[in-house]
Write a structure and sequence with these properties.
Layout: H1 8-16, H2 37-48, H3 58-80, H4 91-104, H5 108-128, H6 132-149, H7 156-170, H8 178-200, H9 210-234, H10 241-272, H11 274-279, H12 300-304, H13 311-319, H14 328-348, H15 350-367, H16 372-390, H17 398-412, H18 418-433, H19 447-461, H20 465-483, H21 494-506, H22 510-530, H23 545-560, H24 564-583, H25 611-625, H26 629-643, H27 651-668, H28 673-680, H29 689-692
Helix pairs in contact: 2-4, 3-4, 4-5, 5-6, 6-7, 6-8, 7-8, 8-9, 8-10, 9-10, 10-14, 10-15, 14-15, 15-16, 16-17, 17-18, 18-19, 19-20, 19-21, 20-21, 21-22, 21-23, 22-23, 23-24, 23-25, 24-25, 25-26, 25-27, 26-27, 27-28
TPR repeats: 613-646
Keywords: TPR repeat
Region (Disordered): 1-33
């Protein structure tokens, strides 16, 4: 660093000596340490070298930042001493150096000032000497200005204007530098895409149509960048392959990211039409898993003719269902291609490209959110990559790791592997505990207690009732600590309390389970009623999958305790609510013909598909107890048919359904009973037929 320890006497002598050069030291021993314009050029080349960003450890990263701070301090001291550095023949070297260093320090306001000074300098030179080289210098300065201003809070519109001017100025140069024109234009288009995306975030409150317009434009720019990099890569220029592959991977990553943002923006506009659809008495036009309007004679075109008052509203109406720029599987494919490129690049420079690989894997997993069978291996690879990086960057990637374990837990709970779900929940809880701040995006108020309650439900499905009881008690205790601060937490206490009641039932304590479930029902309905006058978010018990499940349990317990009619009422109510919930757009199952046309859904992060078969079995047992064997058999058959779907399969429920069907068939001595018996005893789970009580109270069925 220049003049890091220059004596005070040297400073006085420097001010008094008019003949001394601006960069020369007073002491000859310090001559090698002085910052000169050439030294700044060397620093710039060092910082722009790709290998410079390949950090093996966190200490390497800190050393890199510290060295930049020292060099910046030396440069600033020269300016503070009035050395007139900007009046030198090559002030762009100092400005470029300060631009890089202030960006490294994330001082983007100051970096923007450096970029503006560079633009002023190069614009003056271009106006004095309008040669292609001067034009190129100005284009690059405008690109740097756009990149830095995009990271500020209040100058993002200027960022867009700067990159648009750079593209306009560069266009005449494309014929002069054909070999590199595609690459440079691709970089400009990519910068434009990020500038538009950054500016879009500040428009949400101010405008209705601009966020949608700018996101679509950003995606088009990113797609143009991908096309430019592909064209440059096809030229197969010597020594440029790796750099172009890295640029292409970055552009594909940008396309996937912006595509995800666009789909959420479109979904937000579609959701805003819900009140209109409800008012018209018709279904939503754009359900989350389809791209074409439903039938039944309702379209937004007919409704909106009377309600579109401005060109802005007309634009939103025309574009909110326009998927011409891509569907979610298109963006997932782009992310997958970027993953492949980063894998190849990581073999040449692991420290540089592996963090980027992990980021794209995380994005790909998010885009595959509706396809658990595809998302699970991607989540696992992303976790493995982040864990590998974290071995040298301890706690540096704890936030993405915590989010990935949450996603993996959700996907595994869909029924693909309940044993692995337990391990995933354990890891998710462990990583959540390491975070200083936790924001619950899934399953309630407190993430750790919600995950613990979720683990209890998984233990129930695996018939591990002791472990389920321990988890339910832990979750309840954690939530009780929060109740003193907020009565709203009472709503989330329902889940662990209901789990405890179910375990009481399964262990033969039916009366105690009935008392507990009735108490839970009263508390839930009271909260439901109170929410009508509350300023808080409205809570509807009939829309809560967990409440519906607990209502079904209450029906089964009532029937087992002798109140079959009351149990039937609760059971039918639970089945009816679950059918309605599964039929709503946010929870509707993906139809096979629409499997390739699914888009993002920001709701329904919890798995609920296995609940309906479970409720049907509980209701069937109650109906059998009342002697309504035909209706009971219909419910059993429906439950078994649903259980053929992988995500609806629950071993304990299926075993119980088969055993109950066997008992019903034995009444008529049907030939089907032997096959049912054989199928039932191939299932390892014990089931819970004995707890249902349908062999008592005169039902005529022996268990």
């Amino acid at each position: 660093p220049a003049n890091a320890a220059q004596p005070a006497e040297a400073e006085v002598a420097d001010e008094e000596n008019d003949n001394e050069t601006d960069w020369g030291p007073e002491d000859e021993d310090e001559e090698d340490d002085q910052l000169t314009p050439d030294a700044y050029s060397i620093f710039i080349w060092q910082e722009l070298e790709p290998q410079r960003m390949a950090f093996a450890t966190l200490q390497d990263l800190r050393s890199w930042r510290s060295l930049g701070d020292l060099r910046t301090g030396g440069a600033v001291r020269h300016i503070d001493r009035g050395r007139n550095t900007l009046a030198e023949a090559n002030p762009h070297q100092l400005l470029g150096f300060l631009l890089i260093e202030t960006s490294k320090m994330e001082c983007f306001v100051q970096a923007g000032i450096m970029s503006e000074l560079l633009v002023i300098l190069y614009r003056f030179r271009f106006e004095q000497d309008p040669t292609p080289n001067r034009r190129m210098e100005l284009c690059m300065a405008l690109g740097a200005l756009s990149v830095t201003l995009a990271r500020t809070d209040d100058r993002r519109l200027e960022s867009i204007r700067a990159i648009e001017e750079a593209i306009h100025l560069f266009t005449p140069l494309e014929e002069l530098i054909k070999e590199f024109a595609d690459y440079i234009m691709g970089m400009f288009r990519l910068s434009q895409a990020y500038a538009l995306l950054a500016h879009k975030g500040s428009l949400t409150i101010m405008s209705n149509e601009l966020p949608l317009y700018q996101t679509r434009k950003a995606l088009r720019c990113a797609r143009s960048a991908v096309a430019d990099f592909r064209s440059h890569l096809a030229a197969d220029l010597p020594g440029r392959i790796l750099g172009t592959q890295a640029a292409l991977a970055r552009a594909l990553h940008a396309c996937a990211l912006i595509g995800k943002v666009l789909l959420k923006e479109m979904e937000s506009h579609q959701t805003s039409h819900d009140p209109c659809a409800i008012a018209s008495g018709q279904d939503r036009c754009y359900p989350p898993f389809k791209q074409t309007p439903r039938e039944r004679g309702f379209t937004w075109d007919s409704w909106c003719k009377e309600h579109l008052y401005s060109p802005e509203q007309e634009y939103v109406h025309a574009k909110m269902g326009d998927y011409s720029l891509g569907l979610v599987e298109d963006f997932a494919a782009m992310a997958e291609e970027a993953v492949g490129l980063y894998r190849n690049l990581a073999r040449t420079n692991q420290e540089l490209y592996e963090p980027l690989l992990a980021e794209v894997l995380k994005l790909q997993a998010q885009l595959l959110d509706l396809r658990p069978e595809k998302a699970i291996p991607v989540c696992e690879e992303a976790i493995e990559t982040f864990e590998r990086i974290s071995s040298t960057f301890v706690d540096h990637f704890k936030e993405p790791l915590a989010a990935l374990y949450l996603d993996l837990t959700r996907h595994l709970r869909s029924g693909y592997d309940l044993e692995k779900t337990i391990s995933a929940i354990d890891e998710a809880i462990s990583h959540q505990e390491r975070l200083h701040q936790r924001f619950s995006i899934w399953r309630g108020y407190d993430t750790i207690s919600a995950l613990t309650a979720a683990r209890a439900l998984v233990h129930i499905r695996l018939e591990r009732y002791e472990e389920a009881l321990l988890d339910a008690e832990k979750a309840e205790q954690k939530l009780l600590e929060e109740v003193a601060r907020d009565d709203w937490i009472q709503t989330y206490l329902v889940e662990p309390r209901a789990v405890k009641a179910f375990i009481l039932w399964m262990t033969g304590q039916t009366e105690q389970a009935l008392v507990e479930l009735q108490s839970i029902l009263e508390a839930t309905m009271a909260r439901d009623a109170a929410s009508l006058t509350s300023r808080r978010k409205t809570y509807w018990a009939s829309d809560d999958p967990n409440h519906i499940l607990f209502r079904g349990w209450l029906g089964g317990v009532r029937a087992a305790a002798g109140d079959a009619q009351g149990g039937r009422q609760d059971g039918e109510q639970a089945v009816q609510n679950m059918r309605r919930l599964l039929d709503t757009p946010n929870f509707a199952p993906i139809e096979e013909e629409d499997a390739a046309r699914a888009r993002l859904v920001i709701y329904s992060l919890d798995t609920i598909d296995h609940i309906l078969p479970h409720l049907l079995v509980l209701l069937a047992a109650t109906l059998a107890q009342l002697g309504e064997f035909k209706e009971a058999m219909d419910n059993i058959n429906e439950a078994l048919e649903l259980s053929k779907m992988h995500k609806c399969r629950d071993e304990s429920t299926m075993k119980t359904a088969l055993l109950l069907k066997l008992r019903l068939l034995e009444r008529s001595e049907g030939a089907e009973s032997q096959q049912i018996q054989k199928e039932a005893y191939t299932i390892v789970a014990q089931g819970f037929l004995a707890q249902l009580g349908c062999s008592s109270h005169g039902s005529g069925i022996n268990t």
